[in-house]
Amino acid sequence: MENLESCKKDSIIIELTRGRSYANQLKKELHPTPASCVHLLEKVLSSYDNALSLLDCMALLRNGDPRCEGSDPDSKGQVLSKNSKKRKTLATWSQLRVCTEIGFESQLDDGYYWRKYGQKDILGAKHPRAYYRCTHRGTQGCLATKQVQRTDKDTSIFEVTYRGKHTCIQEMRKRKKENLDIKKRREEKEASARRSGQKNLTSKPENQEMSIQDESVPTFTSSPTPIGYENVETSFFSKAGNFVGMSNPP
DNA sequence: TATATTTGACCACG
DNA sequence: CGTGGTCAAATATA
Q1: Separation of A81 CA and C3 C1' (Å)
Q2: How far, in Å, CA of A167 to CA of A79, rounded?
């Protein structure tokens, strides 16, 4: 019976993959695509991707991670800004929900270098939203940015929105080692601080960079998913270590 | 000293 | 005018 179920699932995946492929073909066929069609096509493709990702999520759930049930995969998610001060052109975007383990930074670490440039309290959100941009924006003109915000309900889930595309790949790989070295050092520092300072009631803990700050967002220096699309992509990370689900753009 | 983060101010948009 | 995104001075860290 499990076989039957997985067989059905495979069929669904095949169909969805086919549909996505057709949509891509259609996209190619429409050479000078009208603006309205562009948007629609993006939606269609996004739906296929989301459906496929959902199946992945279900598979992971079946493998047993009850934590993921907390978040509903079909929720619309919150509407993120479609247009910012300087990026009106980003008309289309997609959201994706992913669970990954916070403790394991390796999963979050693909070598990208981020620099925090702002933090903002968001109306209706319990936790502030942090704004990052690629460190090499000035030198290489890399326009990739991301936003990180804790979810209201589950503080262990982070919503990460990526925007733009990295154009500094070479530099990234090189930097990854440095990045890890820095993290190692931080870990050691934190460990020693914990050991020596457990009784200390110093109001400011030394481990701000490493662990999650109460209200703020951890200083991720890398993105967990490859950035290959112009679209904004939002991911949700939690302790669970599994994919949770995703939601469609409005 | 150089580079990264914090944080209030500023600005555009609805 | 409120909200969200960005800027930039002050501050922190190596």
Answers
A1: 11
A2: 27
Could you give the count of Cα atoms lying within 13 Å of A170 in the half-sphere of its Cβ?
1
* Model pLDDT for residues A107-129, shown as the tens digit of each residue: 344 457 899 999 999 998 889 99
Q: Which residue is nearest to nucleotide C14 (CA to C1')?
A: A182
To 10 degrees, what angle do helices A35-62 and A2-29 make?
160
pLDDT digit string, tens, across residues A129-182: 999 998 888 888 788 888 888 877 767 677 788 887 777 764 444 445 555 555
Place of tokens 């179920």: A5
